[in-house]
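Predict fold of Pyrophosphate--fructose 6-phosphate 1-phosphotransferase; 341 aa.
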Amino acid sequence: MRVGVLTGGGDCPGLNAVIRAVVRKGIKDYGYEFVGFRDGWRGPLEGDTMPLDRAAVSGILPRGGTILGSSRTNLMKIDGGVERVKQNMNEQGIDALVAIGGEDTLGVATQLTEQGVNVVGVPKTIDNDLNATDYTFGFDTAVGIATDAIDRLHTTAESHHRALVVEVMGRHAGWIALHSGMAAGANVILIPERPFDIGEVVEHVESRFRTNYAPILVVAEGAHPEEGQMELSAGEKDAFGHVRLGGIGQRLSEEIESRTGKEARSVVLGHVQRGGTPSAFDRVLATRLGVNAIEAVHDQEYGKMVALQGTDIKRVDLSAATDKLKTVPAERFEEAEVFFG
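Predicted 3D structure, encoded as tokens:
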């Protein structure tokens, strides 16, 4: 059997660990041959490949990013895209495809499965917002990076008696903000699932200043105020229709400074969160997902995604992973609210 592998969407710590596990397991136990598609769905769309053998995956376990490259190509918006993918796979003798990605990548995988392409999915996103899996690899690394940054910012905030607003990733789900904010002792955490009242935020900030401590606010990039409270500008859209976010941290710091008369600064962690070497947890999780993905291919359980449920790796329908996002429930946010102010 000849198996194709691709990585799509944003880069993420642990992608190379999955690739390595898929290839090593497939060669050793099943004698499969592997082909890597370059740059997400662009690879099978254009037939752009690279060989994936033991030598190609040697030493990549601790490396961040992806040796296959990535993109946000949406082949479903390209005329004849599905037919081109099928043709390129047939011409190269590829029997099945392992697609490693998030909501958009696996959404395309789901549609390809419905049109007869043999696909197994592996969940990837630092946002941890894919449904049907308890955690996605990359999330633990991103939270660790954000937590370390917030720890460091506490000292400069205290030294200069200023409020610091730390903007982290999280378009629709505030998991990174919630976990890093709780871990680093943030005084306010703002997430997309809970529109915030700017008046309450300012009161928390002033309360912190009254106790002679400098406040730290952690805000997810997709967080937004209650309607009519603050004006936010929208950015351009990508191939999957997502608006480019960023700017809530700066806008919030300006509002806090204006209302309190205290100095406020914003820090945007941005792509630092998803760069660099994966944590030990993410290396192990990614490896287990890769091993189980190629086992699903061997069992011809196509249209499935391998998922972490409890401490076990299970197989779930691809559609179950993408039919809705896994967002922060109210009770989890209420746990963090205890420490606001």
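Residues 106 and 341 are 40 Å apart (CA to CA).
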